[in-house]
Amino acid sequence: MLKTGLELKQQQKLSPLQIQTIKLIQMPIQELEQKVRAELESNPVLDDEPDPNSESETRDVSIDSIKEDGDIPAYRLKVNNWGKDPRPEYNTFSVKESFTQSLQRQLGFRDLTPHEREVASFIIGSLDDDGYLRRDIDTIVDDLAFRANIETTPEEVERMLAIIQDFEPVGVGARDLQECLLIQLRNLKPGPEVNTAIRIVDECFQDFSNKHFQKICSRLNINEDQLKAAFAKIVKLNPSPGGQVDDSYADQSQQIVPDFILDEHDGVLDFSMPRFNVPEIRVNKKYADLLLEAKGSSERAQKEAAAFVKQKLDSAKWFVEALKQRQNTLSKTMRAILDYQHDYFIDGDESNLRPMVLKDIAEITGFDISTISRVVNSKFIETHFGIFPLKYFFSEGMENKEGEEVSTRELKKVLQECVDAEDKKKPLTDEQLVEEMAKRGYNVARRTIAKYRGQLGIPLARWRKEI
Description:
Layout: H1 16-25, H2 29-42, E1 46-47, E2 93-95, H3 99-107, H4 114-126, H5 137-147, H6 154-164, H7 177-186, H8 192-203, H9 205-209, H10 213-220, H11 224-234, E3 254-256, E4 260-265, E5 268-272, E6 282-283, H12 285-294, H13 300-340, H14 342-347, H15 358-365, H16 369-376, E7 380-383, E8 386-389, E9 397-399, E10 405-407, H17 408-421, H18 430-439, H19 446-455, H20 461-464
Parallel strand pairs: 4-7
Antiparallel strand pairs: 1-6, 2-3, 4-5, 7-8, 9-10
Helix pairs in contact: 1-13, 3-4, 4-6, 7-8, 8-11, 12-13, 13-15, 15-16, 18-19
């Protein structure tokens, strides 16, 4: 039996202006410049060059003066909030070549067939952030067949992997830590210490991992001095050839243009937004004339032309207004961040970085959390102590013994200090680190210590033990 009924649904529909504004807000400054140029090319109503033949205010038509029965909304012709300089300059900061790009570039120098190159490229794409291949060869063979439609064999994958393991940084492409260390050791200049180090990692890796020094000496028939010399070689190796990158702030190869420049003078904080070559937008005179000529005309062609121009005018209005709203949103958000983190921005001391989440800035500015997230994403500020992504200043907080909130960044700094000050012959366990943190006024759980230790790249106590 069929049932009929009415169902009410409430939906929030974004206006073209809101959609345009959201898109512009999340763009970094260089991408915005490209967007403005693209808009000028696609919308013939917009123009960025003054009309040299325009001498009469009547003919250089203002949109405010063009109204067709009130249907065409009024708006200003120019976006001039970027400053007076028509050719402003800004600093660019080069970000080093990304890990994957570096490997692909090195692959390009190898004499391989197109098929081999595809297999090797797929392997590079399968490496994790640390530079390890943590997937078995058979799985990669299957993935190549199903996902890339490339037929290969385990032997060919092994051969391409061997080529990648010859790339820089040394140790990349290893399948586990033992293989990673061996690759690096075998690339060192041969000598007694290196040869002993290779034997330790190759033959006594479990004892090496557990710091069972006496067992290693006994098994390899070496003395303590030889062990120390070999260990000195091993500890200089990189267990993470891909780089221990915090993915919150990871940036691919690009040039960074700061969206904000901090100005600090006698404790007073201000900022500027670097002006770039955003042209002053105005209405192209010939299209304005076309619309004026169509007023009151009954000819179909003229009416259609007027409708086309009106549609382009509306589009231009939304774009110009969205640019203004973007500028206002970014400015208010940056002002709120500076005020909230005032003490930190004076000298860049991380201990002054207050716990701050998106909600805090949203409440100050009156913007939605999603808007703050878009502003923060891919935006950078240049300060007198470095260049930082805005995301850097956001972190959760915890309370110390006095009940004051401290940022996770401060906790990590104190944890690092505890590890640096420990006796390396008897390194502190996570439980002991909890006690050390408590002595310094920070109540932190053991699992939190383990989490922060991992994020800081600090190994377990047994790995920090020295002979």
